[in-house]
Amino acid sequence: MLKKFTVINYKNFKEEISVDFSHIAGYQFSSDCIYDGLISKMLIYGRNATGKTNLGKALMDIRSIVFKTPQNDGVLLNADSKKTAAVFIYEFIFDGQKLLYQYERLSNLELQREKLVIDNQIIFDCDFVQKNFNFDNLKFIGAETANIERYKQSLEEGEMEDIIELRLPFLRWLISNVALRKDSILLNLSSYVKRMSVISTSDIIRSQSNKVYDIFFESLERSSRLKDLEDFLNSMGIKCRLALKKLPDGQRELYFSHEKLIPFFETASSGTLALFDLYRRLIPLVQTPSFIYLDEFDAFYHYEMAENVIKFFKRKYPKCQIIMTSHNTNLMTNRLMRPDCLFILSGLGTLTALCDATGRELREGHNLEKMYISGEFELYE
């Protein structure tokens, strides 16, 4: 699981900002927000333009390093900083082992430095700018057979041929080119990163020609899957029956089932479409997600539906680390969350748990929403 994440000089975060999943306050209520000593369900509040979306992008950045997923960063570095690169630091715990992975990059194509530390032992350290490399401790992860010269050669070829990616991350190369043990901590890391995802409210817009939807509709042809989608919507408060029909041109279309069939996408509310997209992207997955960043997840939801979504995630994915961003203060309640899992992101780039944003000792009986609205935590906004 992810223990702590830190980013520096990224977009609107000029100074260091950290998300510490290990910083828990020992509350005895809403214990389903914690798993194995780490925060598993987190809710972040922040005024507009404080960087909630950018924080999610920063957390997901490691996917572009490990799996070469496309990133459309635009401006990457903070406009007011004199530092030459953005710094990303991920601290994980896998089966009791501590893994720290740190890298610096100027853009998607220009990795400047990369370092891996396991249980306080530096495994490798690559300075791509100065061309200084330390691979002395690969034996600690069973990778002593790695052909380092072949890796260095690939770097030189990249610079000479001006290929798309100038500096191949050594971590990605190592995972792809070395026969690691089945219990390797690097394979645990790779599995975790592969199962990370981010969902934004902008994702609910449907394209009729999107092949992703065609594949999903094929899966709905199984009656059990269609019934599961129907039950999911009903559990969220959308009382409906669904039908899937194959049209003469071979395409499939989803309907609300009444005396007459009503096209789903033409008549569904924004909230229902958001729920549908949430289901499509997460529920049918073969592998359970490890980390989900839900940006303004309840933008189209009634407050009761937003609560239902959080409760659903707690039941469905107890181990998954889920960060949700919201402006909905109705969710700021101890019966659903807890003060060490509720955070405020300020315009200055600080992230503060409610339990650390007041001199009071927050207890289960406190009305956190009322305190927030009355200005109890305004110094941290």
Automatic annotation (TrEMBL):
It comes from the Bacteria. GO terms for molecular function: ATP binding; ATP hydrolysis activity. Keywords: ATP-binding, Nucleotide-binding. Residues 43-332 form the ATPase AAA-type core domain. The keyword ATP-binding applies. This is ATP-binding protein. It comes from Candidatus Anaerostipes excrementavium.
